[in-house]
Amino acid sequence: MSQLNESEIRRIAELAVRQLQGQATPANVEKVVREAISRMAPKGEASSAVNPERMKNVPFSAPAKGARIILTAFGTNSIGILAGLTAELAALKCDIVDLSQKIMQDFFTIMILVDSSNSDVPYEEIRERMARVGETFNLKVIVQHEDIFKTMHRV
């Protein structure tokens, strides 16, 4: 794996801040970013230190194409939710790697692990399109990169 550039690290930090919300202290964000970077480094290689001063004013870049993503959706159950979500993923040329859904009375939840390596669509557009599909079913849809998702749930 090639070394992450500053804009990729900055993007990871931006996602960490969004997901940490009220707990996004500098120390928490740094911890999450360092964990994500170390998880992405090849076994046995240490990740290089990042100089925060060099990261200032670096524009955010889109995540690497083909990264695996986690889609989580929840809301009131209705007919066609699974078909709507999976049809849009197919239209985006995204492959479903794993899926777990649960319906508890009228409440619907689903988590889908998606491989987007065959998609020609950028991550941000995948996120927006899946959110729009969710809106048609009155669902809250959250799309996250797998590494950020794993790191966020360890904090």
TrEMBL record:
<protein>
    <submittedName>
        <fullName>ACT domain-containing protein</fullName>
    </submittedName>
</protein>
<dbReference type="InterPro" id="IPR045865">
    <property type="entry name" value="ACT-like_dom_sf"/>
</dbReference>
<dbReference type="InterPro" id="IPR002912">
    <property type="entry name" value="ACT_dom"/>
</dbReference>
<dbReference type="InterPro" id="IPR022986">
    <property type="entry name" value="UPF0237_ACT"/>
</dbReference>
<dbReference type="Pfam" id="PF13740">
    <property type="entry name" value="ACT_6"/>
</dbReference>
<feature type="domain" description="ACT">
    <location>
        <begin position="70"/>
        <end position="144"/>
    </location>
</feature>
